[in-house]
C-alpha cells in the first residue's frame, strides 16, 4: 500500500547562510524499509524529484514533534542531514509512521518491508481535492467519493435526496448542491466539521435542521430559491456566518437572534413575505442588504393609548437568571446550566433602543428603521417597519411611533 501525504523539507542550515527554503507542503510518496543491517530507512519522492531522497532513521532522529499527530501532523528532525520533515496527512498514517520511527512495529525488526508503508515504485499519487458533477452520468453510484475532497459541486442533476455518503467527507470545506430537487437536509449535516461554504439554492427545502446550527465554521450559506417558511432562532449559533442568502423563499419574519451574527456582512432576503424586521436588527453592521420584493406593513403613525395599558410583563425566574448571566458576563458550559436555560440565553434576549437588555419583559411597539443605519449598501426599500421591545413607558414615549394620551 502506498502512502501519500504532504511534506515540507526544512533545511536547518539555510538560515545561517541568510537563505530560506520552500515553506509550502507538497504531495509526496513515502516508503519506510529495513535493510539487511536492520537499519530503518525513509525514502521520499515528489512529482518533481522522482528519484527522491533517502534518510537513515535508526539512531539518526534528533527529535520527534508529535503533539499534533491526532490532527494528522508530524515532524521528524534528523541529525544528518540537518533536515526537518514536516508531514501532514491522514491521522492513521501519521500514527503508523510514529510507531515505526519509535521502533514499536515488529515487522521492521524482523527485516521485512512494512506492509502499510511499502511502495515499489516512485509514482506520486496526488489525491483529488476538487470534484464537479454536472450530469447524472458522472454521478458515482457504485464507487465512493474521494475522502480527500475539500470542494464538491453536484449541480443540475435533479438530485432528490441528500446523499449520506457526503457526511463521511471529513475534509470537505465547500459543498455546492444547487439546482437540484432536495427537500430535506439530514440532522447529522453538522458532522461536516470543516465545512465553510454551503450552497443549496434552487432546491425544495422547507426546513433547516436545528442541528445544522452547530456548524460554527460555516461562513457562507446560500439557501435562496427554496420553500423555507421560517429561519430558526438558533441560527445565531452559526457564529462565523458572513454571507447569508435567503432570497425567494416564503419567510414571514426573521428571528430576533439574527443580531448575534456579529460577523455577518451580506444579507439578502428579497422576494419573501416579510412584513417587519425584529428590533435587534438595528445592532447589525453590514456591507450590503437586499430587502426588495417584501410586503412591508405601513406603520400607523399615531394611535391613542391609555397609560394604564402600558403594563410591563413580570419577568419569569428563567428570564431573571438569563438576564443576570448576560449582565455579569458569566462564563458557563453545558455542565453548569440546564439545557433549557442555555437555549433561552441564545434565543430570547432583545435590546431596547436605549441599550437596556430585555428578556421576556418590556413593551411591544412598532417602529421604523432606516437600513442605511446598519448597511453601507441597500437594495429595495430604505425605510422599513420594525418590531421593538421597549424596557419601560419612558422609552415607549421616546421611540415608539405612537402617541400616549
Describe the structure.
The protein is an alpha/beta fold and 405 residues long. The protein has 3 domains: 3-109, Ubiquitin carboxyl-terminal hydrolase 26/29/37, pleckstrin homology-like domain (PH-domain like, Roll), CATH 2.30.29.180; 130-290, Leucine-rich repeat, LRR (right-handed beta-alpha superhelix) (Alpha-Beta Horseshoe), CATH 3.80.10; 304-373 and 382-404, no CATH class. 10% of the residues lie in helices and 25% in strands. The chain is built from 5 helices and 22 strands. The chain has helices at residues 91-101, 106-109, 317-327, 339-347, 393-399, and strands at 3-11, 26-34, 40-46, 53-56, 61-65, 73-78, 83-88, 130-133, 151-154, 174-176, 197-199, 220-222, 243-245, 266-268, 288-290, 304-305, 349-351, 357-359, 363-370, 378-379, 383-390, 403-404. The strands form 5 sheets. It has a 9-stranded parallel beta sheet with strand order 8-9-10-11-12-13-14-15-20, with no helix packed on it. A 7-stranded antiparallel beta sheet has the order 4-3-2-1-7-6-5, with helices on one face. A two-stranded parallel ribbon has the order 16-22. This is PIF1/LRR1 pleckstrin homology domain-containing protein. Residues 1-103 form the PIF1/LRR1 pleckstrin homology domain. It comes from Daphnia galeata.
Amino acid at each position: 500500500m502506498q502512502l501519500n501525504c504532504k511534506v515540507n523539507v526544512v533545511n536547518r542550515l539555510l538560515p545561517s547562510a541568510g537563505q530560506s527554503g520552500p515553506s509550502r507542503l507538497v504531495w509526496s510518496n513515502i516508503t519506510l524499509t529495513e535493510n539487511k543491517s536492520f537499519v530503518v530507512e525513509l525514502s521520499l519522492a515528489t512529482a518533481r524529484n522522482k528519484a527522491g531522497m533517502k534518510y537513515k532513521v535508526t539512531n539518526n532522529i534528533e527529535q520527534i514533534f508529535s503533539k499534533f499527530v491526532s490532527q494528522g501532523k508530524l515532524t521528524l528532525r534528523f541529525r544528518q542531514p540537518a533536515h526537518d520533515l514536516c508531514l501532514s496527512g491522514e491521522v492513521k498514517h501519521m500514527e503508523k509512521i510514529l510507531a515505526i520511527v519509535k521502533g514499536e512495529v515488529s515487522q521492521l525488526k524482523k527485516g521485512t518491508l512494512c506492509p502499510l508503508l511499502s511502495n515499489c515504485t516512485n509514482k506520486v499519487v496526488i489525491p483529488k481535492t476538487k470534484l464537479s458533477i454536472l450530469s447524472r452520468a458522472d454521478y458515482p453510484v457504485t464507487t465512493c467519493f474521494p475522502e480527500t475532497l475539500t470542494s464538491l459541486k453536484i449541480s443540475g442533476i435533479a438530485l432528490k435526496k441528500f446523499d449520506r455518503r457526503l457526511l463521511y467527507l471529513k475534509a470537505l470545506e465547500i459543498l455546492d448542491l444547487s439546482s437540484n430537487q432536495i427537500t430535506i437536509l439530514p440532522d447529522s449535516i453538522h458532522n461536516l466539521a470543516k465545512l465553510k461554504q454551503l450552497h443549496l439554492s434552487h432546491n425544495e427545502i422547507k426546513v433547516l435542521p436545528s442541528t445544522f446550527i452547530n456548524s460554527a465554521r460555516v461562513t457562507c450559506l446560500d439557501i435562496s430559491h427554496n420553500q423555507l417558511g421560517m429561519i430558526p432562532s438558533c441560527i445565531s449559533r452559526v457564529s462565523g456566518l458572513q454571507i447569508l442568502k435567503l432570497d425567494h423563499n416564503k419567510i414571514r419574519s426573521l428571528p430576533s437572534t439574527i443580531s448575534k451574527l456579529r460577523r455577518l456582512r451580506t444579507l439578502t432576503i428579497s422576494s419573501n413575505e416579510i412584513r417587519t424586521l425584529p428590533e435587534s436588527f438595528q445592532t447589525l453592521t453590514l456591507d450590503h442588504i437586499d430587502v426588495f420584493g417584501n410586503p412591508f406593513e405601513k406603520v400607523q403613525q399615531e394611535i391613542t393609548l391609555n397609560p394604564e395599558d402600558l403594563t410591563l410583563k413580570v419577568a419569569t425566574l428563567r428570564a431573571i437568571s438569563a438576564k443576570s448571566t448576560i449582565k455579569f458576563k458569566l462564563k458557563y458550559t453545558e455542565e453548569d446550566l440546564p439545557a433549557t436555560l442555555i437555549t433561552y440565553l441564545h434565543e430570547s434576549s432583545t435590546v431596547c433602543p436605549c441599550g437596556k437588555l430585555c428578556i421576556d419583559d418590556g413593551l411591544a411597539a412598532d417602529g421604523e428603521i432606516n437600513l442605511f443605519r446598519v448597511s453601507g449598501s441597500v437594495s429595495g426599500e430604505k425605510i422599513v417597519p420594525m418590531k421593538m421591545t421597549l424596557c419601560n413607558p419612558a422609552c415607549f414615549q421616546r421611540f415608539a411611533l405612537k402617541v400616549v394620551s
